[in-house]
């Protein structure tokens, strides 16, 4: 995984509540065995009309939000099934950070395991970001080390994160890589165990 420290980018305001994993990545696109290649199918049924044409009204299709690395949404983001393909699609599309008032638990944990920073701000703070970002594309800075989100006009929001996941994301570690941090302890334990056997 790539380390995350400071992400500064235009953000995409997705003004929807209860965005479920089937809306994030629909079931017909789950046939791949790799973790990559899902980004092109992110929010497919919102990004495209039934005839396959681009839905120009959808936020991700608007030119001012192209290249956004930060997604801002409403309550209960990532609800529905436990499919890990949802964070895969979000990351593959180019988002490193998702900001919302609340996340479904499994999706929230899957974000950490796949190198995405899920930031919980209050409902009022998210509403402010959504309103501002919809009115005009805005750049914000998310600083994981400082646990802050700073708007273009200098307003600062703070967020909390479990120190375990913070360390993982700052270093670009998954849970297997985190185990190697204790490699010397593991080796010493194994050597001691061999002596007693």
Automatic annotation (TrEMBL):
Pfam families to which the protein is assigned, alphabetical: Aconitase_C
tRNA processing is among the record's keywords: no
Subunit structure, as described in the record: Heterodimer of LeuC and LeuD.
Reactions catalysed, as given in the entry: (2R,3S)-3-isopropylmalate = (2S)-2-isopropylmalate
The protein's enzyme class: lyase
Homology family: Belongs to the LeuD family. LeuD type 1 subfamily.
Xref: PANTHER family: 3-ISOPROPYLMALATE DEHYDRATASE SMALL SUBUNIT, 3-ISOPROPYLMALATE DEHYDRATASE SMALL SUBUNIT 2-RELATED-RELATED
CDD domains the UniProt entry points to: IPMI_Swivel
Domain of life, source organism: Bacteria
UniProt name for this protein: 3-isopropylmalate dehydratase small subunit
Pathway(s): Amino-acid biosynthesis; L-leucine biosynthesis; L-leucine from 3-methyl-2-oxobutanoate: step 2/4
BP GO annotations: L-leucine biosynthetic process
Taxonomic source organism: Caryophanon tenue
Domain Aconitase A/isopropylmalate dehydratase small subunit swivel: start-end pairs: 5-122
A single GO molecular function term of this UniProt record: 3-isopropylmalate dehydratase activity
Alphabetically ordered keywords of this record: Amino-acid biosynthesis, Branched-chain amino acid biosynthesis, Leucine biosynthesis, Lyase
Function summary: Catalyzes the isomerization between 2-isopropylmalate and 3-isopropylmalate, via the formation of 2-isopropylmaleate.
Record EC number: 4.2.1.33
A single cellular component GO annotation: 3-isopropylmalate dehydratase complex
